[in-house]
Amino acid sequence: MIRTRTIGYQALYISRPRGSELRNFYATPIAWKKNAKKGGKTKDNSKSQEQDGIETVDLSQYVQKASELFERTCELHKKRLGELKSGNANPSVFDHLKIGKSNAKFTDVATTSMKSRNSLLVTVFDPKDTKAVISGILAANLNLTPEPIPQNEQQLKVMLPAPTLESRKQTCKILKAVFEEYKNSASKTSLAHARGEILKDLKKLDRKSDAVNRTLQEIEKVHKQYTSKLQDQLKQAEKSVMG
User: Fold this and answer.
1) Do the beta carbons of residue 163 and residue 225 sit within 8 Å?
2) Between 3.40.50.1000, 1.10.132.20, 3.30.1490.20, 3.40.50.720, what CATH number should domain 61-85+164-242 receive?
């Protein structure tokens, strides 16, 4: 391994023989120890100063962290698209509702499951909350009507209307909005936010350093790859919705 160094605020570069893994390193100066003076003489400890005066940073950690954040965004994006593309045929369709005068969370008073391909089954935990759950679903304007099951006062059957061309187009419009949110919004789960945070930390180092610039370029490359991955997820979801 060959090391070259210039003193001050320049970078310390570490190169390896051809064929080996390339990793960028960056060195920053820290406080130099002053020579101890005693009896008008100065002790020469330049070697100790050199060792203590350079702090080496492995820049690959920035690329790794960016990749991990981008991957998390893609996972969340894919999950959200999966929930939306199924439309009302989704057991979590009522989870955001508030029920009754106390505005209780729907998930605190009932649970939803698929009864069949074209219907949902809502099970209310306490029979006294059944009417409030029915009212909450009707008030949500989801075009869904819960019907009590005669044999069980705690269960409601909800028939799902067949999707129309217009409803499919509307779903695709919502999918595109979600894609933009995860791609380029100020949300902490977006690719843009993750990229911005990594670059902000990286740019605190010497911008004139070749090693830092190579790392910046690598992060931009990885960001572009994950943007394409998000676009592929959107295309697959739209294809599924439109049939």
Assistant:
1) no
2) 1.10.132.20
